[in-house]
Specification:
The radius of gyration is 24 Å and the shape is globular. It is of the alpha/beta class. The chain folds into 2 domains: 2-26 and 33-86 and 251-351 and 564-622, FAD/NAD(P)-binding domain (3-Layer(bba) Sandwich), CATH 3.50.50.60; 91-121 and 171-248 and 354-482 and 495-558, Glucose Oxidase, domain 3 (2-Layer Sandwich). Strands 3, 4, 12, 13, 14, 15 and 25 form a 7-stranded mixed β-sheet that branches. The protein contains 19 helices and 25 strands. The longest helix has 18 residues, at 505-522. Bound molecules: flavin-adenine dinucleotide. Residues 50-56, 75-78, 94, 121-125, 128-130, 132-136, 272-273, 312-314, 317, 491, 560-561, 593-594, 604-607, 609 line the site of flavin-adenine dinucleotide (FAD). Keywords: FAD, Flavoprotein, Glycoprotein, Oxidoreductase, Signal. Residues 478-613 form the Glucose-methanol-choline oxidoreductase C-terminal domain. InterPro entries: FAD/NAD-bd_sf, GMC_OxRdtase, GMC_OxRdtase_N, GMC_OxRtase_C.
Length: 627
């Protein structure tokens, strides 16, 4: 892999390519990457893509294949995911936390929830978060994507985003035996047929996940047989970003690997961009970027005349790089001694993430979850062997989700209470977003996701040799808005990550109600057959409204679906990019990643990141000013 990247660099005429002595060892899921001296000369490129993550590699590949004359340089802070079990094996999703491929971000203590830091791990690797995420592949409802256009960005609607999600994906239709065994259902006409990213159902479905389907139906929820064409309500079998080998699909494996020897596309790994270089014109022009390698050596990567920089460093690093380069709010930049090139207060603003709470139950004797892999060595050996044949537990990360609107969860009286709470706009929510969200909440768009983690994922009393499951309850449309801003001039320091969770009363109230409802799943006949009745966490001491509220405040998690720090909105609405994704006030700098999403959707976000990459490529190659 690296040889090929170096080769492609050589074909571009570089004096030296990245010299990486990559010794990759893995023990207990921990990746150790050793690097040595870097000696690098970077040749000017037509397009410089900062960040080889989900959206970054998507656009890089599409631009490189669009014209033989377009040279594309990708600069990625992490290394390759090739051969890393923690990346490739579906069951190991989330095992990257705390390893060298984790940026290790944390959310600052939240004023309106328990005052503790919240984990916000993220992939520092080619593929970015697509290499470390939970593999869940979902879409939201039409109205949620159409809201982007209503907020002021022509063409950013369901039709264009649906078309570009389909362009990214390729459905691997389940075999007859899998359908027979697990009941997998998917409407193939709603999915892409020939995109680079394979999506499929796992070869193994734990019984407890099948039980979540049965429990949902027992509770009267809809079983959705076509959740990928604009109506996502109900429980359904969700696809995963994995092929049928089965290996996780990352943007590296899907978009880069098949193209790695292509001479227009050059990828430098372990290349951390510290700043975008802008000229002094009144509407600044990017001339290139500053790059730092692990040995501390620093280089300038320059643009060819007429070229552009594409910022795809993700929701945390993209606003940081804009601010470090002098684009942002002068009240933040000036005190740090940064020369303000473009006054743009929207940079880092409008930040949000899904919020999540968990309930934990113990499985009855005879039923096992992934917990058993850590206390039963024989089982681990057997499953590892089975995985090499494409079967068994390790092929599974997730396959069942349940998205519901408020009227399925709340009583008639509670709906009246909800209306009362929503009659006042929370302080941090922009008025136009509030108006749209209120409409979505009260008119049947899904607001919560229930999903089962196949392990002990919350609580203090984990017993040895025991298997558990945890139900995650995710609020999919928080009203609270926060920010990500720098507080130093160094790329080595993390910016302050503050989604302002629970600032809105609605966000607290709804997550508490939806979490209390979560208990009902375990009281169904379907779950009672496989779980011990007594809840492990939080347990019977939590039952009143006040107790649930306190519980969610003290046990709040991020949904790992951060968005909005370089929003696709009109400038006067705290926007950072217009419909063609160019940063306001600049000539040739675009943002192409999840930072542009102006409002979160009721879905996991990787398909949106791929669609943004695909759509941006369409915009650039057709020279369009909007979609
Ligand atoms: C733990 C976790 C679980 C998730 N689970 C799911 C799921 O199951 N399903 C789903 O749909 N979504 C999931 N998501 C969300 C989804 O994966 C992300 O929203 C999406 O992949 C983000 O894409 P992106 O292109 O915006 O950023 P990324 O994919 O994060 O790409 C950013 C890239 O930029 C690089 N970079 C950053 N700074 C620099 C710099 N200064 N110089 C050079 N390179 C830099 C990073 O290393 C990274 O490769 C999850 C996310 C996480 C973190």
């Amino acid at each position: 892999m690296l040889t090929s990247l170096v080769l492609s660099a050589a074909l571009l005429g570089l004096a030296h390519a990245t010299l990486v002595d990559l010794n990759t060892t893995q023990s207990d899921g921990v990746t150790i990457l050793e690097t040595k001296t870097f000696e690098t000369t970077l040749t000017p490129a037509n397009k410089i893509v900062v960040g080889g993550g989900t959206a970054g590699l998507t656009i890089a590949r599409r631009l490189a294949e669009s014209s033989l004359k377009t040279s594309v340089l990708v600069l990625e802070a992490g290394g390759s995911g090739v051969g890393l079990n923690v990346v490739t094996i579906p069951e190991k999703s989330f095992s990257f936390v705390g390893t060298d491929i984790d940026w290790g971000f944390t959310i600052a203590p939240q004023e309106h929830a328990g005052e503790y830091e919240i984990n916000l791990s993220s992939g520092k690797i080619l593929g970015g978060d697509s290499a470390v995420n939970g593999l869940v592949w979902t879409r939201a409802s039409k109205a949620e994507y159409d809201a982007f256009e209503t907020l002021g960005s022509p063409g950013w609607n369901w039709d264009t985003l649906y078309a570009h999600m389909r362009k990214a994906e390729q459905l691997e239709y389940p075999s007859a035996s899998l359908i027979d065994e697990y009941g997998y259902v998917v409407d193939a006409s709603s999915l892409g047929e020939s995109g680079p990213v394979s999506v499929s159902f796992p070869a193994y479905l734990p019984i407890q996940h099948k039980t979540l389907v049965e429990a949902s139906v027992e509770l009267g929820h809809t079983f959705n047989t076509d959740a990928y064409s604009g109506d996502n309500a109900g429980v359904y079998y969700s696809l995963s970003s994995q092929n049928t080998v089965p290996v996780r699909e990352t943007s590296e494996f899907a978009y880069l690997t098949p193209w790695e020897t292509h001479k227009q596309l050059t990828v430098f790994t372990y290349a951390t961009v510290s700043k975008i270089n802008l000229d002094d014109s009144s509407e600044p022009k990017a001339t290139g970027v500053q790059v730092i390698f692990p040995d501390g050596s620093e280089y300038t990567a320059s643009l060819k005349s007429g070229g552009e920089v594409i910022l795809s460093a993700g929701v945390v690093r993209t606003p940081q790089l804009l601010e470090l380069s002098g684009i942002g709010n002068s009240s933040i930049l000036t005190p740090l001694g940064i020369d303000v090139k473009v006054e743009l207060p929207g940079v880092g603003a409008n930040y949000e993430d899904h919020t999540m709470a968990l309930l934990t139950y113990q499985l009855k004797d005879g039923y096992l979850s992934f917990d058993a892999l850590s206390y039963n060595e024989t089982l681990l050996e057997e499953e590892t062997e089975l995985y090499s044949e494409g079967e068994g537990w390790l092929t599974f990360a997730q396959a069942v989700v349940n998205f519901e609107p408020i009227d399925v969860i709340l009583t008639a009286d509670e709906i009246e209470e909800a209306k009362e709470i929503l009659s006042t706009k929370p302080e941090s929510t922009p008025q136009d977003q509030f108006d749209i969200l209120k409409e979505l909440i009260l008119n049947g768009t899904t607001q919560v996701e229930y999903l089962l983690f196949n392990s002990f994922s919350a609580g203090d009393d984990k017993e040895s040799n025991t298997s558990y499951v945890s139900l995650s309850i995710t609020h999919t449309h928080p009203l609270s808005r926060g920010s990500i801003h720098i507080n130093s001039t160094s790329i080595d320091d993390f910016p302050v990550i503050n989604p302002n969770m629970f600032e809105a009363e609605w966000d607290q109230w709804w997550l508490a109600k939806a979490t209390a409802y979560g208990r009902k799943f375990f009281q169904t006949q379907a779950f009672q057959e496989i779980v011990v009745s007594e809840e492990v966490y939080p347990g019977s001491s939590v039952s009143t409204d006040d107790e649930w509220l306190e519980y969610v405040k003290e046990n709040l998690n991020a949904g790992y679906h951060s968005a909005g720090t370089a929003s696709l909105l009109p400038k006067e609405s705290n926007g950072v990019v217009g419909a063609n994704l160019t940063v306001y006030g600049t000539q040739n700098l675009r943002v192409v990643d999840l930072s542009i999403l102006p409002m979160l959707i009721s879905a996991h976000t990787q398909p949106a990141a791929y669609a943004i990459g695909e759509l941006a490529a369409t915009l650039i190659t057709t020279g369009s000013t909007n979609c």
